[in-house]
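User: Good morning. I'm curious how flavin-adenine dinucleotide would be positioned relative to this chain. Could you predict the structure with it bound?
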Amino acid sequence: ADSAAAAGTGTEPPKKFPKGVVLGKDGKPCRTCTSFASWATQTKSALKASAPPKDCPPDVEQLGRSTWTLLHSIAATYPPTPTPKEQADLKSFMHLFSKLYPCWVCAEDFQAYLRKQEVRTRSRDEFGNWLCEAHNEVNRKLGKPTFDCSKWEERWRTGWKD
Ligand code: FAD
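Assistant: Good morning! Here's the predicted structure, ligand included:
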């Protein structure tokens, strides 16, 4: 989704916001959709050049890092041979997750990805690789390097081989 979203739906003319500030569906700036750097440009705060404070609401990056940690850790603890119920629970979780994710632009793109690439849950290995590919899709969209998915378990489950 376009990060310079203007989402106002009322009759008022849209307000101007600095580049990079993503608006929520209510037409107001969406903090969990916006990087701290962009967010700070619209405040009078002296924090502009610094890193986001640890005890403030998350920006899109902090939220993303924490969420990937949770999702890859779910993959790391998912059974190698899950029961049909465990597979169904994981599918439900991922679909609900994609609807509830607190950055709406991220959520809409992730829902579109799920429609294209159905979540694979038949084993830990299968889900871990599916998730790694899904994360790489976001990396590509953001212009970040992609991750070698043959290493997902070392990164998230076993630790790096010496
Ligand atoms: P992150 O991408 O957060 O990754 C954390 C760590 O995971 C990395 O340090 C690396 O060790 C490891 N890693 C990286 N890639 C992989 C991989 N493929 N498989 C396994 N491990 C990996 N941000 C936006 O600005 N726009 C969006 O549309 C957007 N959509 C998102 C959708 C989802 C579902 C999620 C969870 C996050 C989204 N984000 C989005 C946030 C974005 O993905 C990053 O989390 C954020 O930019 C911080 O990036 P980072 O460089 O710190 O590393």
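Residues 60-61, 64-65, 67-68, 72, 101, 105-106, 109-110, 132, 135-136, 138-139, 142, 144, 147, 152, 155 surround flavin-adenine dinucleotide (CB under 6 Å). Residues 1-10 have pLDDT under 50 and may be disordered.
Let me know if you'd like a different ligand tried.
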